[in-house]
Amino acid sequence: QAQFVESGGALVQPGGSLRLSCAPSGFTLDDYSIGWFREAPGAEREGVSCISNINGSTYYQDFAKGRFTISRDNTKNTVYLQMTSLKPEDTAVYYCAMGDCRFFSVYISDHYLTSRFGSWGQGTQVTVSS
After folding, report:
1. Count of beta carbons in the 10 Å neighbourhood of residue 122
2. From the CA atom positions of the chain, what is the Rg in Å?
3. According to the model, what pLDDT value does residue 53 have?
């Protein structure tokens, strides 16, 4: 079954930066648009950002705009999420999944957005705390 492996999570102080990586297990990323999501304790999984496989278009939820940058390197078969100016409220398990990035621009709800993506990995923990 197609699945992703997320890595790069860590404990970081407020204002710090992290780069998360998302790599597929057993297939190549070239043909897929990839989204990053996060799930904080007691909260619903929410979309963070998405990058299209067609033209490299990127999409961001409002809280990520200006702080997070999504990118992909098909030669390394990896999608990245560069996070800067991290805040305690960014603390969550971060996941990547495949789907259609256009759902990020026609946002209805976190549940609906998350349901449009699949092949979830185990996630990587990001903790922002002093």
Report:
1. 11
2. 13
3. 92
Query: Do 27 and 14 meet the contact criterion of CB atoms below 8 Å apart?
Result: no
Q: How far apart are CA 130 and CA 126, in angstroms?
A: 13
For residue 101, give both structure tokens.
């990035």
CA 13 to chain centre: 20
**Residue 113 pLDDT greater than 80, yes or no:** yes
Q: What does each C-alpha distance from 66 to 3, 84, 104, 112 come to in angstroms?
A: 29, 9, 16, 25
Query: Is residue 83 exposed (0-12), middle (13-18) or buried (19+ Cβ within 10 Å)?
Result: buried
Angle at 29 between CA 90 and CA 75, to 5 degrees: 100
Give the per-residue pLDDT at 8.
98
